[in-house]
Amino acid sequence: EKITPKKFREILPLICDKETSFDQANWTKKNPLWGHCAMISVLAHQVFGGLIFYGLVNIKNRAEPIKHYWNFVPDFLPDGRTEDFSSAQFGNNPPSLPKGRNITKSLVHVRIKKSKRFKLLALRFAKKLSGDARIFDDQIYQKCFFSALDSPCQKLRFGCVIIHNSKIVYAGQNKTIEPLKSFCEPTCVRLQIQSRTESMIGACGHAEEIGLWEVARKNIPLNECELYVAGINMQGMPLFKNTPGHTCLRCAVQMYNAGIKVIYGPAKEGWLAPIDGEEAVKTAKLYASKEKTV
Fold first, then answer.
1. Distance from C-alpha of 114 to C-alpha of 280, rounded to nearest angstrom
2. What is the pLDDT of residue 60?
3. How far is CA 146 from CA 102, 121, 208, 240, 241, in A?
4. Which of 110, 160, 130, 115 is nearest to 236 (CA)?
5. Which of 1, 118, 163, 231 has the fewest CB atoms lying closer than 10 Å?
6. Pseudo-torsion of CA 101, 105, 108, 111, nearest 10°?
7. What pLDDT does residue 264 have?
8. Residues 6 or more apart from 99 whose CB is under 8 A from it?
9. What is the average pLDDT score of the chain?
10. What's this model's pTM, rounded to 2 decimal places?
11. Please, what is the Cα angle at 91 between 86 and 92, to 5 degrees?
């Protein structure tokens, strides 16, 4: 389903609460968007692209101006108008927006994206658009999802969790391999490559392979470990599986060689039945050879 600005606005009151508000002391159930402009603007940027702006605005009954964030979404507003997705917090008196400062991809933008409040809001948004799928209530899946949000990947972002003796020993995401970063400049070469094929081309260190090495360096037996991996697209929407299996041959081979105990992939209702390294290689081979694409 395509996400429209109207749909986006409809979901916001359902996912914003005191826990995700900047101003928890003044947040109320009657005004759920209060104190959410920064989080909502970054979430809107993740979903729609465009630009994020910041400035000081004057609001009714406040002697001093307050900090405020809003968006410019060119795909929906080609005439250059801006969009204040959190304007409902001001009731019938939304502030006039100044010229503002573009903070897209700034350190401020990065800090907001890494904040607990933003990650929680992003998880809730994805959950609502996924029909309140039960997997979102799973703590391991949440850890994978939050890790994936930190990925710098320009195509698909993945989070991986590895557990040993019921304890999380690794949680991380796919990252850029520094000596290969030219593959990502200015845009990732993999944007022109069919997903799940030619997995060695690109600058991305995959979440699973990074996790295997991190755990191995800790001298933890990988044959006693459970590996969970889940992905999201660039809009923060989850990637679900219908049947057990793995789709990346590059990671499958490494998991097979490492002797990982079991591998889990996500479906809407929960984690699918676990597979071992051999099954991961067999299923990933079908995608690498283009025998299977979906």
1. 31
2. 82
3. 26, 11, 15, 16, 19
4. 130
5. 1
6. 160
7. 98
8. 55
9. 94
10. 0.94
11. 120
Q: Are 88 and 135 in contact (CB under 8 A)?
A: no
Query: Rounded to whole angstroms, what are the CA distances from 4 to 161, 232, 274?
Result: 32, 19, 36
Helices (H), 89-177: 107-114, 116-129, 139-149
Q: How far apart are the first and last CA of the chain?
A: 18
Q: Is 232's pLDDT higher than 90?
A: yes
Residue 78 has pLDDT above 90, yes or no: no
Query: Rounded to an integer, what distance in angstroms lies between the CA atom of residue 10 and that of residue 4?
Result: 10
Instruction: Give residue 75's pLDDT.
Output: 73
Vertex 212: Cα angle to 208 and 218 (nearest 5): 145
Would you state the pLDDT for residue 263? 98
CB atoms within 10 A of CB 282: 14
Please state the φ and ψ torsions of residue 164, each to the nearest 5 degrees. Answer: -130, 125
Residue predicted with more confidence, 285 or 196: 285
Three-state DSSP state, 159: strand
Residue that the structure tokens 């990988």 belong to: 222
Q: Which amino acid is at 282?
A: K
CA atoms within 13 A on the CB side of 21: 18
Among the listed residues 131, 164, 161, 149, the one whose alpha carbon sits nearest the alpha carbon of residue 240: 131
Closest by CA to 195, choosing from 293, 89, 285, is 293
